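[step 3/7] fold_predict: job queued, chain A
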Amino acid sequence: MITVVLLGRLADLGGAPTLSLPAPLDWAGLQAALPPALAEAVKNSRNRIAVNGVLLAEKTDLHAGDGAEIALLPPVSGG
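[step 4/7] structure written:
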């Protein structure tokens, strides 16, 4: 299994702060496995992806195996 960590607004769209999805996953597989509203939101170029703590340069570089953690990161807002 892969743990998907959802932060900020993405957690609201996913309905929980984490999801467990079957391994392995690539970018297309992740989008297909997510709830529709969340899948649409992660396509936005402002949302980033990290695998096991490493930020990906391109979402299409996603390749995660069993035991991996994928973090879906919304843009940071500040004040």
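[step 5/7] annotate
The beta strands are 2-6, 18-21, 25-26, 48-51, 54-55, 63-64, 69-73.
The chain has one domain: 2-73.
exit 0
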